[in-house]
Design brief:
mainly beta, binds zinc ion
């Protein structure tokens, strides 16, 4: 299997994506640049294209109902899941410790 490469638009460094990770990618997934830490949103899979996501400070929460990762841009506010419509109040104190689980 071949690895995939994607150029980070923010720093122009090449990020390598293992073939098995590529297979799990879907559009709108967000990668983190190995070099500069920018968040890169997948806008196309074939060919692989990404856009830099501005001001994304890691405010991602998982919907307790359907486990969709939701971008929450107002910490402290309740979040409504775009997938299932469930509204909940995230535990903001947990946010910021999620970087460790990155599989990249
Ligand atoms: Zn970068
Ligand atoms: Zn949901």
């Amino acid at each position: 299997m071949e690895d995939f490469e994607v150029i980070c638009p923010a720093c122009n460094e090449t990020n390598t994506i293992a073939a098995e990770d590529y297979q799990e990618l879907t559009e709108n997934d967000v990668l983190e640049c190995d070099s500069c830490g920018a968040y890169l949103e997948v806008v196309s899979l074939d060919p692989l294209e990404v856009l830099v996501v501005e001001d994304r400070e890691g405010f991602f929460v998982d919907c307790p109902r359907c486990e969709t990762a939701i971008e929450a841009d107002e910490p402290g506010e309740p979040v409504t899941c775009p997938e299932c419509g469930y509204t909940f109040a995230p535990d903001w104190s947990d946010i910021g410790e999620e970087e460790e689980e990155s599989k990249w």
